[in-house]
Amino acid sequence: MARRAAIIGGGVIGGGWAARFALMGWEVRVFDPDPEAKRKISEVVAGAARALPMLYETSMPPLGSISFHATVAEAVEGADYIQESVPERLDLKHKVYAEIQKTASDSAVLASSTSGFKPSELQEGAARPGQIIVAHPFNPVYLLPLVELVPGPQGAPEIVTTARSILTEIGMFPLHVRAEIDAHIADRFLEAVWREALWLVKDGIATTEEIDNAIRYGFGLRWAQMGLFETYRVAGGEAGMRHFMAQFGPALEWPWTKLMDVPEFTDELVDLIAGQSDAQSGHLSIRALERLRDDNLVAILRALKGQEAGAGKLIADHDAQMRAPLEGSVPLVTVRRVVPVDWTDVNGHMNEGRYGQVFSDASEELMIHVGADRAYIDAGHSYFTAEANVKYLSETHAGETIFVETKVLLGEGKKLRLWHEMKRAQDGELLATCDQFLLHVSLDTRRSCPPLNHVRDRVEHLARMHAEA
Ligand SMILES: NC(=O)C1=CN([C@@H]2O[C@H](COP(=O)(O)OP(=O)(O)OC[C@H]3O[C@@H](n4cnc5c(N)ncnc54)[C@H](O)[C@@H]3O)[C@@H](O)[C@H]2O)C=CC1
Ligand SMILES: C[N+](C)(C)CC(=O)CC(=O)[O-]
């Protein structure tokens, strides 16, 4: 049975949480008094359903569900995990926790998305303070893995352990914030950047667009893969961080930053920033900007995944955990996945090279299925493709789910011939076929040779089964 999450407050952040949990197979119950909440969440979920599966090379768990409820009690009833994402007002959050704790199970995690409040502030006056912790996410919650987990001194260890395990299971990176402070770790950092950006615009030094360019063409790219300290360590040259600090440390005392001096928050400043932002991006709707952001994030995360760097390594590991072994159906379904944005070309459809990749993935899955797995390869045996004849029959586009059915046409000694059919999941349309001939090889001699007995037996068994079907 699907596990249940309750989302209390379904705005920008609550909607993102609802989407992530549902896409990871959870039953999600939402409470939000806004009559527009259902429409807004549906739009966020549609964006998430397009983007999140593109991160993975395997299919997602069966889709969970999202339902909307008229009371907090109904939403939190039987929930294993409760995420509060109501507006950033302490009195409102206290009121909501009192309501939640009347019905919620004692063992359920009650986590807040708060950007700035400390858990001890949230826990004040609560019936069960230890149950309330901070799980601060980043927008869009369904794509960015970071979640700052802040228990504070009163957070119950068993609640933290459960929260960490659930958040990891849904593909997130829980960063344990050991000491509670206002704005946790990341928002403290982001506030400093935001403050300096406001100064630069207010003082007429740079526009919103020039500041965005300063980030996206330069240091923003470094931060995504190495963060701040590792990046600066490299910038110190062969002498590393010590040299970097000796060279740039004294700059802290130069007038390079306005530091704690905060610009006055006036209507004029809001008009200046909002006006420049409209001039920069007002020609695009927020939904169009979201889609652009999500597609770029998918492409960046997939590139990092290929490098096993930063958040990409986390997604690669999560992918491996979600991968289910092949079922012995006839024909075998060797691939089931979503076409990611970075696989499409100038014609707006999946590039022909990716068809080849999908068929190659299909044969690798078959190899694992017959025992020619990583250990077998490490021991010096494998299959090489000698010939592949691909027929491109129809287009497929980013976001579509495709699958490959594979049959063993021939399995005799060192010869292995496979027939793959790639289909679109939505309508079953045949997209491409591949007739692939492989030879078993010794990785020592790089020449063909018979497979080891257990692989040979399984290949021959499949060939017989598929011939009879
Ligand atoms: N927007 C952002 O970039 C981020 C926000 N957060 C945090 O997430 C929380 C929510 O922020 P957003 O989603 O941005 O705000 P939002 O304004 O988009 O959504 C808040 C939602 O709460 C609902 N709400 C109001 N009173 C409620 C009640 N009594 N019970 C249930 N729902 C109620 C509103 O109808 C609205 O849909 C805040 O604590 C914020 O600090 C965290 C990370 C990023
Ligand atoms: C601006 N903010 C403080 C609400 C930002 C966050 O809390 C995290 C984010 O998504 O940047």
From TrEMBL:
Which E.C. number(s) belong to this protein? 1.1.1.108
Gene3D superfamilies per UniProt: Hotdog Thioesterase, N-(1-d-carboxylethyl)-l-norvaline Dehydrogenase, domain 2, NAD(P)-binding Rossmann-like Domain
Where does this chain mainly localize?
A: cytoplasm
Instruction: Please state the span of the N-terminal signal peptide per the UniProt entry.
Output: none
Domain 3-hydroxyacyl-CoA dehydrogenase C-terminal stretches: 185-251
Which family is this sequence assigned to? Belongs to the 3-hydroxyacyl-CoA dehydrogenase family. L-carnitine dehydrogenase subfamily.
* Organism of derivation: Antarctobacter heliothermus
Q: Where, subcellularly, is it found?
A: Cytoplasm
| Catalytic reaction equation(s) | carnitine + NAD(+) = 3-dehydrocarnitine + NADH + H(+)
**Keywords noted in UniProt:** Cytoplasm, NAD, Oxidoreductase
Q: What residues does NAD(+) bind to?
A: G9, G10, G11, V12, I13, G14
Q: What function is annotated for this protein?
A: Catalyzes the NAD(+)-dependent oxidation of L-carnitine to 3-dehydrocarnitine.
Single GO cellular component annotation?
cytoplasm
Single Gene Ontology BP term? carnitine metabolic process
* Subunit relationships: Homodimer.
**Which EC class does it fall in?**
oxidoreductase
GO molecular function annotations of the record: carnitine 3-dehydrogenase activity; NAD+ binding
The organism that produces this protein has a lineage beginning with: Bacteria, Pseudomonadati, Pseudomonadota, Alphaproteobacteria, Rhodobacterales
Query: Which residue ranges does the record assign to the 3-hydroxyacyl-CoA dehydrogenase NAD binding domain?
Result: 5-178
Pathway terms, separated by semicolons:
Amine and polyamine metabolism; carnitine metabolism
Spell out the protein name for this chain. Answer: L-carnitine dehydrogenase
